[in-house]
Amino acid sequence: MNGLIRFITSINVFIYRVSGGRLGNRLGKQSVLLLPTIGRKSGKRHVTTVSFYRDGNSYLVVASNWGKENHPGWFYNLVEQPRTTIQVGANTIQVEARQAQGEEYQRLWQLVTQQNEQYVRYQRRMKRRIPIVILTPEE
Predict the structure, then answer these.
(1) Which CATH number does 3-137 carry?
(2) Mean pLDDT across the stretch 53-75?
(3) Residues 107, 27, 65, CA angle at the centre, nearest 5°?
(4) Half-sphere exposure in the Cβ direction for 34 (13 Å, CA)
(5) Max intra-chain CA distance, the chain
């Protein structure tokens, strides 16, 4: 993530937290959530804002990394430690993360790209397949 994006994200996380999710929960037309992860190398806690989509009671996040050829750091961190607590607006929700695969991936790719065509443009110029991560609330 370049410096400007990192700076804007940190400000958005701060505003989101201070306002209890009333502010900072949108990025343009997209709804965003706070996604905390533990660094797989550093062991440090990181929080970022990520656009999300819904599929039933699950939250979908797309590891597009702004169209870069590598996955975002939060993706690798979730693979290593899939349990986390997201904040969606004022609500905090315990979730477990997993990658969409196979036919499920295809169905969810259609769902997210209908809501954000930017992912299609990113995918066309990349060699990697953009992962879709399903965040399923724990009961």
Answers:
(1) 2.30.110.10
(2) 95
(3) 60
(4) 29
(5) 40
Q: Which two tokens stand for residue 59?
A: 């939250």
* Rounded Cα gap, residues 50 and 35, in angstroms: 7
Is residue 130 a contact partner of residue 63, using CB atoms and an 8 Å limit?
A: yes
Q: What residue ranges do the domains of the chain occupy?
A: 3-137
What are 8-45's pLDDT values in tens digits? Answer: 788 887 888 888 888 887 877 889 999 999 999 899 99
Place of tokens 């929960």: 25
d(CA 134, CA 125): 24
Q: Give the CA radius of gyration of the chain.
A: 14
pTM reported for the whole predicted model: 0.89
Q: Are 130 and 119 in contact (CB under 8 A)?
A: yes
Instruction: Note the pLDDT tens digit of each residue in 101-119.
Output: 999 999 999 999 999 999 9
For residues 20 and 48, give the distance between their C-alpha atoms in angstroms, rounded to a whole number: 15
Which of 128 and 24 is assigned the larger pLDDT?
A: 128
Q: Contacts from 118-122 at CB under 8 Å and sequence distance 24+?
A: 118/64, 118/67, 119/62, 119/64, 121/67, 122/64, 122/66, 122/67
